[in-house]
Amino acid sequence: MREDTWVLILFWLIIPLVLYLLVPSRKVKHAHILFWFAQFIMWDMDIIDVQFNLIQFPYRIFEYASKTSFTLHYLVFPSICVIFTLYRPERRSWVVRAGYDLLWTAGITAFLFALDAFTQLMHLVQRSVLFRLFVVYLLLGLTRLFYVWYRKGFRSAEDGTESAA
C-alpha cells in the first residue's frame, strides 16, 4: 500500500478522535455548524483553486469523480477550523487574538507545504507563501465571522427577542 494511503487512513482515524477529545459536550452543536460551514467554504475554495490550476491533487480517494481532495477538504481542514474557532481567545486583548490567528495561519500553511513536499496528496502549483497565508487567514476568518453571526442569532433566539428561524 502506498504511504499516501496510510496518511489518509491516519487522518480518518485521528481527526475524529481529536474532535471527540477537544470539543466540549456543551459545544457539540456549535462544532457541527462550524464543521458544515467550513466544509462549504473549503469545498468551494478548493474547486476554484483546482479550476484555476493553483493546486493539484495527484492522489485522491475519488479519482474519477472529482479533481479535489475529499479527505483534506471534507475532514481535515473543517476539523482544524472547528478547533481554531472554538478555542479562539475572544475575551483577550487584540494582541493575543492576533497572535493566536497568526500562529494558526502559519501552522496550517506549514502543514500545507509539508503535505506538498512529503506526499502526493497535494501539489501547490502556486507556491507563494504569502498567497497561501492570505487564503488560510481568509478561510479561518470567514469561519469565525460565521460563528460570531450564528451565536449572536442563537443567543437572541434563546432570549426570546428574535424568532429561532
UniProtKB/TrEMBL annotation:
<protein>
    <submittedName>
        <fullName>Uncharacterized protein</fullName>
    </submittedName>
</protein>
<feature type="transmembrane region" description="Helical">
    <location>
        <begin position="99"/>
        <end position="118"/>
    </location>
</feature>
<feature type="transmembrane region" description="Helical">
    <location>
        <begin position="6"/>
        <end position="23"/>
    </location>
</feature>
<dbReference type="InterPro" id="IPR048147">
    <property type="entry name" value="CBO0543-like"/>
</dbReference>
<keyword id="KW-1133">Transmembrane helix</keyword>
<feature type="transmembrane region" description="Helical">
    <location>
        <begin position="71"/>
        <end position="87"/>
    </location>
</feature>
<feature type="transmembrane region" description="Helical">
    <location>
        <begin position="130"/>
        <end position="150"/>
    </location>
</feature>
<keyword id="KW-0472">Membrane</keyword>
<feature type="transmembrane region" description="Helical">
    <location>
        <begin position="35"/>
        <end position="59"/>
    </location>
</feature>
<keyword id="KW-0812">Transmembrane</keyword>
